[in-house]
Amino acid sequence: MRAACTALYSWISREIGGVRPHVQFVAELCCRFGLENGGLSSMDPRIAVASTYLDALRSHDGSSVPLAPDAVRHEVGLKTGFSGNHLRRSLSGGPQYRVIRDIREVEWTVDGDDLTADYLLDAGLFGRNLMTVRVTETFRIPADDHRIHHITAKIRPARAKHT
Known about the structure:
Blueprint: H1 2-15, H2 23-32, H3 38-41, H4 46-59, E1 67-75, E2 78-81, H5 84-93, H6 95-98, E3 100-111, E4 114-125, E5 128-140, E6 148-157
Parallel strand pairs: 1-6
Antiparallel strand pairs: 1-2, 3-4, 4-5, 5-6
Protein name: DUF8021 domain-containing protein
Domain DUF8021: 44-153
Organism: Rhodococcus erythropolis (Arthrobacter picolinophilus)
């Protein structure tokens, strides 16, 4: 697995035109999700960048999320992130994110510089899930930068699956 991660690290570095501090983290993340080598070549590498944000929602550690200094986030029409550093601090310690227990069933679409993740988010307290919501989050990640510049989140109740 280590050889695959090293190859992936080299591939991502070439694709984005040089080594950036978050490239190693992105390569490790891709390897963890089984996207090494050829698996990622058919996928836009910016999905791995946006995935670091989703991983930070799960782990409550935003320190490795590649955000532009002037990155902003809007949630249901309200500005909830005011800079890259503010977003990292919020992900790491904000009470609004502490209730997130899991993110699952992530589906990606790419349209130019916009990457959209549609997923289910489980929220709860004291080890218990209290609710599940569907989140559609659009990330603006320019192809020549590979940092998140803008996030727009839409949250709605999740529909129960009938069996």
